[in-house]
Design a protein that fits this description.
This protein has 136 residues and is an all-alpha fold. 72% of the residues lie in helices and 0% in strands. It has four helices and no strands. Helix 2 crosses helix 4. The radius of gyration is 17 Å and the shape is globular.
Length: 136
């Protein structure tokens, strides 16, 4: 099987996607350890941000990390398709969590849908390409 060689643009795009995905993941951990306990202990009315930031950042994290690390360059897996799969994965995650916890978290489901929408809007505004689209 012939190994594909990545172009400089593809390597640069993978680094950017990976950096953004890892940065958003680190941001989620920071929010988990600092913001959520602060918001709960001070009874802040933050419009459920402390509860749903993982769903808000979930779609961009999944899209960036799959574009950077978990796909072959030969595949034509577009970013819009990746966004849809990420939203569906988060919906299934919330449904399974709802079945196990006996309580459906509708705020997280709505946050996942909103996250998919703003990720798609960012995709349209900035014209990001999938890794296979960066050929020289």
């Amino acid at each position: 099987m012939k190994e594909q060689i990545l172009s400089d643009k593809q390597r640069r795009a993978k680094r950017i996607y990976g950096t953004v995905g890892i940065a958003l993941t680190v941001l989620c951990f920071i929010l988990s350890y600092f913001y959520r306990p602060y918001a709960y202990s001070h009874h802040l009315n933050d419009f459920h941000l402390a509860d749903s930031y993982t769903s808000i950042f979930g779609v961009p994290i999944i899209v960036c990390l799959t574009q950077a690390f978990f796909r072959k360059e030969s595949e034509k897996w577009s970013i819009p398709k990746n966004i849809v799969y990420a939203v569906l994965m988060l919906f299934v995650w919330e449904a399974v969590d709802g079945l196990l916890a006996k309580r459906m978290d509708w705020v997280d489901i709505i946050a996942s849908a909103v996250s998919g929408c703003y990720t798609y809007i960012l995709y349209l505004l900035f014209g990001f390409k999938h890794i296979g689209g960066y050929k020289e």
